[in-house]
Amino acid sequence: MTRRVEGKVALVTGAANGIGRSAALVLAREGAKIIATDLQDEKGVSLLRELRVAGYECEYYHHDVTSEEDWQSVVAQTRARFGRLDILVNNAGIGLSGPVVDMAFADWKRQVAVNLDGVFLGVKHSLPLMREGGGGSIINVSSIAGIKASPNVSGYCATKGGVRLFTKSVALECAAAKDGVRVNSLHPGITETAIWDTLIGTVEDGSNGGRERGPTLDKLTERAVPLGYKAAPEDIANGILWLASDESRYVTGTELVIDGGRSIG
Ligand SMILES: NC(=O)c1ccc[n+]([C@@H]2O[C@H](COP(=O)([O-])OP(=O)(O)OC[C@H]3O[C@@H](n4cnc5c(N)ncnc54)[C@H](O)[C@@H]3O)[C@@H](O)[C@H]2O)c1
């Protein structure tokens, strides 16, 4: 049986941990050649080793998604190594929480830089290489926070809502250009990853904790997720895989919500 992204080249940002790491593993297993990038080199290199030991073609590059120079360099290295780019997963992100009046302007700007500028730069610098190859699939990892607001995460909601509409606009631009590039956003709900270390305690209940991550996240999940449990990173990676594969060839500009029903409840 042919694997679902056989022979495609996939660039995954924020691949050292959580959803990005899982996406890199799932895409590799389904036949893609992987460019994994992150700031956390030790974990990135460990992923690289794991993929290579399993026999997959993979590179890891240090990459700050807020840096235009880094993006130019990563795309140039992708071109040199694989000659093409078929899948871009703009996954790197951070979550900062707290009441808006307490949010330092520097933290607001940092969150915008990683979550929104990073996605813009990724699309801008990857599109030419994708177009040269005749098309591709861009998956911008937003959040249900980009659809449904919660208190005390105004900056996070603003960036993720921005990713959602940025995605739709670029999808229309690519469709009009008939370049074969599809652009979609993906909206995870509560997923068990390290991002909750900086989010929990201030989301929804307004408390300013953060120290009782386990119980607090479990409590939030129980209250807010109709299915009653958190997503595993693989649950989100499977959605990334579908958007990356040709199975979703008629899908562009859409928002794929994977949240255990949270945003409808
Ligand atoms: N975990 C959830 O519940 C959840 C829900 C909705 C959306 N998301 C989104 O999923 C994406 C992945 O997050 P995660 O949950 O796996 O968190 P995570 O913290 O486990 O992983 C995020 C990765 O991004 C990297 N990163 C951060 N800043 C970077 C930068 N400037 N340049 C390059 N890499 C950088 C980190 O080093 C880390 O490896 C994020 O965009 C996040 O907003 C997560």
Q: What is the CATH architecture annotation of the largest domain?
A: 3-Layer(aba) Sandwich
Overall 3D form:
globular
CATH topology of the largest domain: Rossmann fold
- Fourth CATH level, the homologous superfamily of the largest domain: NAD(P)-binding Rossmann-like Domain
**How many helix segments?**
8
Task: Provide the β-strand percentage band.
Answer: 5-15%
Assembly type of the shown chains? Answer: single chain
Helix content: 40-55%
Give the total of domains: 2
Highest-level CATH class of the largest domain: Alpha Beta
Strand line-up across the major sheet: 3-2-1-4-5-6-7
**Structural Rg:** 18 Å
Class derived from helix and strand content: alpha/beta
Tell me the distance between the termini: 39 Å
Most strands sheet = 7 strands, parallel
Low-pLDDT ranges: 204-213
Topology:
Blueprint: E1 9-13, H1 18-29, E2 33-38, H2 41-53, E3 58-62, H3 68-82, E4 87-90, H4 105-132, E5 136-141, H5 154-177, E6 181-188, H6 196-199, H7 213-224, H8 233-244, E7 255-258
Parallel strand pairs: 1-2, 1-4, 2-3, 4-5, 5-6, 6-7
Helix pairs in contact: 1-8, 3-4, 4-5
The structure holds nicotinamide-adenine-dinucleotide.
Nicotinamide-adenine-dinucleotide binds next to α1.
Protein model, in words:
With 265 residues, the protein is of the alpha/beta class. The chain folds into two domains: 9-189 and 232-255, NAD(P)-binding Rossmann-like Domain (Rossmann fold, 3-Layer(aba) Sandwich); 192-230, no CATH class. Helix content is 45%, strand content 14%. It contains eight helices and seven strands. The chain has a seven-stranded parallel β-sheet, with helices on both faces. The structure holds nicotinamide-adenine-dinucleotide. Nicotinamide-adenine-dinucleotide binds next to helix 1.
